[in-house]
Amino acid sequence: MDPWSLPLTQLSGVGEERAKDFAQLGVESIGALFYYFPIRYEDFRLRDLTEIQHGEKATIRATIYGLPTVQYYGRKKSRLTCRLVSGPHVVTAVWFNRPYVKEQLVPGKEITITGTWDMHRLQVNVEKHRFATPKADQALEPVYRVTGSLSQTFLRKIIRQSFQQYGAHLEEILPASLLLKYRLASRWDALRWMHFPQDLRQGSWARRRLAYEELFLFQLKMQAFRMKQRRELGGITQVFPQDQVEQFIERLPFTLTGAQQRVVVEILKDMASPFQMNRLLQGDVGSGKTLVAAIALYASVLAGYQGALMVPTEILANQHLQSLQELLAPYDIEVVLLTGSLPSRQRRDILAQIQLGFAQVVVGTHALIQEDVTFQRLGLVITDEQHRFGVEQRRILRAKGWLPDTLFMTATPIPRTMAITAFGDMDISRIDEMPAGRKEVETYWVKPQLLERILRFVAKEVAKGHQAYVIAPLIEESDKLDVQNVLDLYQTITQYLPHLTVDIMHGRLKNEEQDRVMEEFTAGRTQVLVSTTVVEVGVNVPNATVMVIYDADRFGLAQLHQLRGRVGRGDDQSYCILIADPKGEVGKERMRIMAEIQDGFILAEKDLELRGPGDYFGKKQSGLPDFLVADLSRDTTMLEYARGDVEQFVRQEQFWQGQLEPQLLQWLERKGIFSEQLLD
Ligand code: ADP
Ligand code: MG
Q: Could you tell me the distance, in angstroms and rounded to a whole number, from the CA of residue 283 to the centre of ligand 2?
């Protein structure tokens, strides 16, 4: 009997109404009730008076010594006092407004009281008392989130009852070998201890076991789904002459870094395999992801397929078009651009080229996923800055081919724990090395009062022939947030620097206007570009050496790092200036960290430590599951182990035959992964 298939109404005391209230809490079966964990515990463990601080709340065991007396004040108020002996101490217990307790206070009787200790009066203000000897597993009393007709007392009672009636059906789900390997508590013990621990140690054993279980099952779901897809659908095999790809790499304008070489091998291996590639390519800004993409696209074209590269902005699309054309044109490869701003005649023309297969590499924005875009033979799909696209958009692009190999590129350094959780169904490649000769971007955190000095510095750099970005957070006037308006900022800067060519860039400008602004800046005719974060992703102007960021504390560290990545792309020393006056300690710490640390991955780990996983991505787009017990910023090692352990199982044929840990396969079935649509 599976407790997850048993409705709560099977429990005596739970009718339709209570079942509804439980549903509100997300609990719809007896199985789920076992996993409805307390939010905290009330501590009723017996203490010795000598170790209790004045004003502290505690529980002591005592013997009634004197006769109780009651004083009344007015109609409703009363004060009941009674002398007790606890160990060698005589204390006074006080009950307010509960005169009826007096009848129960018989001298010589044992009593347990919980209340606040007043050390000066040797007095306990009693909140709760009991006469029975407290049971060990009731000393820490669970406190649950409750609603409607459900009370704390009721929840405690019904959960105890469930354990008695149905606990036997709580079967172990983790493989015995793993329980042994990590010395994990059994599922039954862990769940009981989670609700009714005898001491803190039991509580932490319970949490450890359940956190592992959670991470293991989550990984199992992700990996099993993926394996199933591989087993049942396969993918395309891209066959390309290895030596021709090698030649292409040799003739590139630079030598690949070791990390680039490694990820290229990983990607090409996936493409040549009969399975669909589903790979995340992480690489800090400037680590050379575009070059890697170009190699993959080249291989795909050699194999007789078309490749598509989708990017979030037109600026980026143009930039990628240029670099890809430079790299691929010598090999007679046709690279085309598809964006929303193409004139319709030209667009029709491009669409035809794509459909007929003349266009071998297509670079584009969201325009790529329009319904009327049809590929002849799409073999490789790459999305750059993948977090900028929704799941649905990426899915549509993939669906334009038959199981095309897919590469998701991101410059947002994601801490590894989060990457393998949020992207557990992907393989991960990481470029963790910068091309040689890159200089660190000197980063300073300054207060807004120093604006004049900052602008003098900007002018000095410009005088050397360099360019600068000045970033304002928002375009709209927003009194509430008190953020610098980009238009105001533009005014201020032109006032301070009247002799410089200053331009303005934001998302509200028409596409042609944006193109013009970028062209002017890229060509070096604009010296200072005042902009919103539209330049955050991908923009590559090596001559720019200064990045000034207004209200820097309003940005996430990941985003600041992206912005900083716009400079330091050439041979000259670059600078990033963070203007901020954060009030809180965390805010200050974040600015200090930014100024100190260059490595995007380390920054990401720090940010995760400082702000927790939710804040790092922003809750909504994170794709992170809400774990009940596991904590991604803490249980990192455990996650790595769980991932490896799961791999051991899903790789084996016996697992899929149900001959190896069949309970896991059954769990997957219950979770419905075998009925989920495989094809996008
Ligand atoms: P990303 O997209 O990862 O931010 P890019 O692909 O735009 O980085 O590369 C940043 C710059 O580094 C580009 O100007 C590129 O030509 C250059 N680059 C890429 N790979 C190398 C390399 N192996 N050696 C030297 N320069 C490189
Ligand atoms: Mg890039």
A: 9
Taking ligand 2, which is a single-atom ion, which protein residues have CB atoms under 5 Å away?
Answer: 289-290, 538
Question: Among 209, 204, 211, which Cα is nearest to 179's?
Answer: 209
Q: Which CATH number fits domain 242-431: 3.40.50.300, 3.10.310.10, 3.40.50.2300, 1.10.10.10?
A: 3.40.50.300
Rounded to whole angstroms, how far apart are CA atoms 222 and 213?
A: 14
What's the confidence (pLDDT) of residue 645?
A: 95
Q: Whose CA is nearest to atom 18 of ligand 1?
A: 288
Half-sphere exposure of residue 535: CA atoms within 13 angstroms, side-chain side: 31
Provide the sign of the torsion angle of the four alpha carbons 618, 623, 627, 630, taken in this order. Answer: negative
Longest dimension (CA), the chain: 104
CATH numeric code, 46-133:
2.40.50.140
Q: What percent of the chain has pLDDT over 90?
A: 59
For 145, the 3-state DSSP assignment is coil
Packed helices 511-522 and 314-328: angle between N→C axes, nearest 10 degrees: 50
What are the backbone angles phi and psi of residue 106, rounded to the nearest 5°?
-100, 125
Expressed in angstroms and rounded, the spacing between residue 308 Cα and the centre of ligand 2 is 15
Which CATH number describes the domain made up of 442-597? Answer: 3.40.50.300
Cα–Cα distance measured from residue 546 to residue 544, given in angstroms and rounded to the nearest whole number: 6
**Which residue's alpha carbon is nearest to atom 15 within ligand 1?**
288
What pLDDT, on a 0 to 100 scale, did the predictor assign at position 509?
80
Weakest mean pLDDT among 27-31, 107-111, 209-213, 225-229: 225-229
Q: Where are the domains of the chain?
A: 46-133, 172-233+635-680, 242-431, 442-597
Radius of gyration of the chain (CA): 32
Tens digit of pLDDT for each residue in 551-590? 898 888 888 888 898 998 888 899 999 999 998 888 899 9
Mind listing the pLDDT tens digit for each residue in 432-457?
888 887 778 999 999 999 988 999 99
Instruction: Report the Cα 664 to chain-centroid distance in Å.
Output: 26
In whole angstroms, how far apart are CA 456 and each of 107, 461, 498, 585? 85, 9, 12, 30
pTM for this prediction: 0.71
Distance CA 206, CA 185 (A): 7
pLDDT, residue 518, reads 87
284 Cα nearest atom in ligand 1: 3
Q: How many CB atoms lie within 10 A of CB 359?
A: 24
